[in-house]
Amino acid sequence: xxxxxxxxxxxxxxxxxxxxxxxxxxxxxxxxxxxxxxxxxxxxxxxxxxxxxxxxxxxxxxxxxxxxxxxxxxxxxxxxxxxxxxxxxxxxxxxxxxxxxxxxxxxxxxxxxxxxxxxxxxxxxxxxxxxxxxxxxxxxxxxxxxxxxxxxxxxxxxxxxxxxxxxxxxxxxxxxxxxxxxxxxxxxxxxxxxxxxxxxxxxxxxxxxxxxxxxxxxxxxxxxxxxxxxxxxxxxxxxxxxxxxxxxxxxxxxxxxxxxxxxxxxxxxxxxxxxxxxxxxxxxxxxxxxxxxxxxxxxxxxxxxxxxxxxxxxxxxxxxxxxxxxxxxxxxxxxx
Length: 336
Ligand SMILES: NC(=O)c1ccc[n+]([C@@H]2O[C@H](COP(=O)([O-])OP(=O)(O)OC[C@H]3O[C@@H](n4cnc5c(N)ncnc54)[C@H](OP(=O)(O)O)[C@@H]3O)[C@@H](O)[C@H]2O)c1
Description:
Strand order of the largest sheet: 4-3-2-1-5-6-7
Oligomer: single chain
Bound molecules: NADP nicotinamide-adenine-dinucleotide phosphate
Radius of gyration: 20 Å
Number of strands: 13
């Protein structure tokens, strides 16, 4: 049995869902994988850098009283030392312009000798190559399965099960928030009501304009191109339009025709090796690979040199699914 010190950097919807999931799965981790853990660090801008080397009480984690039982570090280096971190879960908010400060945080985590696990796609756009090399050089893991399709296997699918394939292109529906807003307007209700529903489900980015204006999908396209196609695509190179210009009549007509609008992301490798990428609302017919994606469901369709089409659909993922992606990364990082 090995005991790991786990730390949360960012403790919002996803971080808290992971804390609940760790409690629910504690027995499975112990029995099936010989893994025991305690939570020795929790940090965010409002919480500060809280550390407790003998472990916070998981049942009350997040309450002020529970966090007061630890000590407050001055910054990330001291926090990593005081919490004796073995694994850090980074779930701070998306920064689509630079991926910061999450990249600096994850660099410090890997340099301290801990495994780094993130749900933050911005990091993959601006810091993937550096953090991946740093992790390899230190014999640690840098994993990020929840960053693109919640817990659905996308990165591990390529890493573990598809050796020697070349990815030619992909298309995807990556934003539950835009699906829900569009479907709410198709049903005759308002944009604002759709956004409220998505926020209540916990699937919206900290800043909802990141979903509505297509930034979330754009950053995901770049993350996938970086990791799976080895091309450092940046958001400025993606032709991007969001869903603000869609009006209810247009949406209702498209739905009645059987070809509803979705915010679709596409990327394909050109003859010269560069990637051409676009994010925009498109009408999608029922027989197309992305044709049955509704509500909070998400999907990605790959075209590979070895397979004409391979589609992964995540049917109605929720916060627990996202948390599961982080938990799976943790198990995969530490198992022998
Ligand atoms: N929600 C989802 O369904 C979902 C799915 C997949 C991936 N993700 C990704 O997971 C991450 C977290 O999402 P969430 O829904 O949990 O967001 P959230 O509820 O807004 O939580 C974000 C957390 O990060 C902290 N934070 C923000 N900026 C920080 C900084 N500069 N330094 C330290 N802490 C900081 C916030 O606390 P303070 O304000 O106190 O700093 C908060 O604890 C995002 O990168 C998102 O893209 C989310």
